[in-house]
Amino acid sequence: MTILPEGQTFAVPITIIFTWPDADSDGRVDGTRFSEANLVVTKNNVAITGRCRNEPGCDMAANTFTFQVSSLSEFTLAVVHHAASVDVDPETLKLTSLGNFVTAYLEVPAPFSAYMVDPTSIRVVRVNGVNLANPIPIASVHDVSDHNRNGVPDLTVKFDRASLVRVLSPGTATITVDFELSGGPMFRGSDTVRVLQ
């Protein structure tokens, strides 16, 4: 939300209150997989608050985030994603092949661990930078191993191949996966694959 006139400054800070819907009180922003606890306020795409769970101005029961600013600009209620490593296999997908699954290996940096990933949160959310209207959940979770042999455990998951190829077209495709840790932060990682007719 851009609050005009952009750039207007104030000698005394003003208070802004953001709200979000959570009709079923499940702790997630309605229509998303975002945990309320992970919400932050950004100004021009830079976080100006900590996570909701750590901010005295955030009330998850009332679904409000109250903060003060001394100038007007573009403010957003957002979720900050930490960088994750995502490796999609196979690296070349043929749209007409008959396979059932596409495998992805998810790796998070220390001090986090692949053992901490909440499988129900894993989704393909973007292709080539475009958000999917219907993010694709995983079909199954396999195991934690060290697929790339770099000494850091990764979680092996499978996506339904038919669901994924429906959102791909021939050329190259950057596939972005979001997930979160159990009770913890959100992560995002991408991998680029070749797509053949």
Defining traits:
single chain; 197 residues; mainly beta; 2 domains; 9-stranded mixed β-sheet; 1 helix; 15 strands
Overview in brief:
The chain is mainly beta and 197 residues long. The protein starts with 8 loop residues before the first strand and ends with a strand.
- What is the total number of structural domains? 2
**Separation, N- and C-terminal Cα atoms:** 41 Å
Q: From the 3D coordinates, which CATH architecture of the largest domain would you assign?
A: Sandwich
Query: So, the CATH homologous superfamily of the largest domain?
Result: Macroglobulin (MG2) domain
Low-confidence stretches: none
CATH class of the largest domain: Mainly Beta
Strand segment tally? 15
Describe the structure.
The protein is an all-beta fold and 197 residues long. The protein has 2 domains: 9-79, no CATH class; 81-196, Immunoglobulin-like (Sandwich), CATH 2.60.40. The protein is built from 1 helix and 15 strands; from the N terminus they run E-E-E-E-E-E-E-E-E-E-E-E-E-H-E-E. The chain has one helix spanning 161-165; strands spanning 9-19, 39-43, 46-47, 58-59, 64-71, 75-79, 81-83, 85-89, 92-94, 101-107, 123-127, 130-145, 154-160, 171-180, 186-196. Strands 7, 8, 9, 10, 11, 12, 13, 14 and 15 form a 9-stranded mixed beta sheet that branches. A 3-stranded antiparallel beta sheet has the order 1-5-4, with no helix packed on it. The longest helix has 5 residues, at 161-165. It is elongated and about 65 Å long.
